[in-house]
């Protein structure tokens, strides 16, 4: 490293130095103690007694992974995810100047069953890992994952993956 590269007059070094000084001042100010008038304390927050039954509040007939998954991703949650995904896509399409050839223009609202398939594919992709998303839909025998192609097309899965990232 050249000494010229990191001179004391380097403005980026000064910025870093200034930031750390202000952090120290803020930390010192946070350490200042003050007296509390114990006669005039604010009332404590109300205590709500717990009246529920602790533990799992659903009946489990078996112990299959899908049953456990459905405890957390029940019909209400999956329906909410579907409606919010559709709402987000609609807002995104309205607020952005998209070209007529944009894939986002071809968005079709999804329902709960499609969201369940999407979540299943995401879980399967965690088990069968590939370095590139497109390899899951590859036609090459060594890369192919035929089951995923039967569940959802590559274009549809890309819509679900890409809509949120357009917002950034």
TrEMBL record:
Domain PiggyBac transposable element-derived protein: 64-155
Amino acid composition bias (Acidic residues), ranges on this chain: 1-26
Stored Pfam families: DDE_Tnp_1_7
InterPro entries assigned: PGBD
Region (Disordered): 1-29
Name of the protein this chain belongs to: PiggyBac transposable element-derived protein domain-containing protein
Organism for this UniProt entry: Araneus ventricosus
